Amino acid sequence: MSFPRYAAYKDSGVEWLGEVPQGWAVAPLKRSYSVSLGKMLQPELSSPNDTFLPYLRAANIQWAGVDISDVKSMWFSEKEKQHLSLRKNDLLISEGGDVGRSAIWHNELEYCYFQNSINRVRAKNNNVTKYLYYWIYAVKDKGYIDILCNKSTIAHFTAEKVAAIPMPLPTTEEQTTIAAFLDCETAKIDNLINEQKKLIELLKEKRQAVISTAVTKGLNPHAPMKDSGVEWLGEVPEHWSVVPLKYFTNFSGGGTPSRDNLAYWNGDIPWVSPKDMKVERINNTEEYITEHGLKNSSSSLITSGQILIVVRSGILKHTIPVAINDIPVTLNQDMKALCFNKSFCINSFFFRWVQGLNEVLLLAWAKQGATVESIEHNYLAETLIPLPPIEEQSTIVAFLDQETAKIDNLIQQAQKATTLLQERRTALISAAVTGKIDVRNKSLPASLS
């Protein structure tokens, strides 16, 4: 969809803003909106008889709206209650963390207040809060907020900085028109984005189902079956073996050379940690150690072609990262390498097996009572693995490589479409609130016009 431009433009006087329509004003935000910072949490100032009241934190502020599922309580004095109460259509802007993230308060609670991690911005002189919301969104996307907050240190988008932001100001009527236009158009784009995200999830589910079926049932749907002896595994082809992992596997662990000794680091030996396990094949790592570091730590050199698995990390809450190393590597203490007797199992078959059964293995291997999510070695080693003959393992792996490549290509296309839609959304918002396009004559649904 193409949009016309305004008839005439003028210099805004702000370098990063450029030109704005001739009839628009440009002024600091504080000219049209009042800005207030919330109260610092100071429970020691309250007494046991005080009434604690609901308040919002920066975590409650999301671009999609205010999340009130986890609202805390705090004591507010009578004066603070008057000064820090929220009204419908107040804009709330994160002061710290993801600075600039904003949401409009729509009066979900009868009364509510806000902590000092939030700036409350309230419209003056009939200016439109939703227009301001889109302006803050555009300013954040341009990176201006990050520059203003000096992201090299802990960022703080203070009330003074919010108030000083320059903004283009069309008339109230035109602000309303722009906001309504963007509500309508971004809703359309958001629906398309959600459709692509649902498609991606369905494709990922299909991918896992294809893998799971192939590595537990084989490729012949008519093969005679037998009970595997494992409740969560069910039946497997009759001619497959069911063998404990430890019977055909050597396990290797890792370690971390002392960080205090610089001679141990920045060498040429890849050192794998959980943060490297975002890919299926390991060809490089974020950190490298030296021969000196290798000799003076509990880590050992792992030859190429082994299964690498994360055994201790917060990521084990939802997935078990697994990969194959194409190069010799060392490991940190949160990793294990599995080397198989090749007459029993090829590494790529086990790799797909873990991928296909990720959810049940998370439960089967979880170490009970651990403060950090981890895999219990004994549970891992004792796991019964259904193993087809080696030739059949190779056939299954070749089939899965082909099928997952097709699905991965569809996922990449959907992800690319999502990215393009998000870019379109952002560009449209920026163009509308800066007057680069004229949307005054665009027809809108009756509910928005």
Radius of gyration, in Å, reads 29 Å
Going by helix content, strand content and strand pairing, the class is alpha+beta
- CATH topology call of the domain at 219-387: Adenine-n6-DNA-methyltransferase TaqI, Chain A, domain 2
Largest sheet: 5 strands, mixed
The CATH class of the domain at 219-387, by name, is: Alpha Beta
Percentage of residues in strands: 15-25%
Total beta strand runs: 25
Tell me the distance between the termini: 19 Å
Cα shape: elongated
Report helical residue fraction. Answer: 25-40%
Provide an overview of this structure:
It is a single chain. The chain has helices at about 80-85, 130-140, 145-150, 160-165, 170-215, 290-295, 345-355, 360-365, 375-380, 390-435; strands at about 10, 20, 25-30, 35, 50-55, 60, 65, 70-75, 90-95, 100-105, 115, 120-125, 165-170, 225, 235, 240-245, 250, 265-270, 280, 285-290, 305-310, 320-325, 330, 335-340, 385. It has about 450 residues and is of the alpha+beta class. Among the domains are: about 25-170, Adenine-n6-DNA-methyltransferase TaqI, Chain A, domain 2; about 220-385, DNA methylase specificity domains (Adenine-n6-DNA-methyltransferase TaqI, Chain A, domain 2, Alpha-Beta Complex), CATH 3.90.220. It has a five-stranded mixed β-sheet with strand order 17-24-21-22-19, covered by helices on one side. The protein has a four-stranded antiparallel β-sheet with strand order 4-12-9-10. α5 (about 170-215) runs antiparallel to α10.
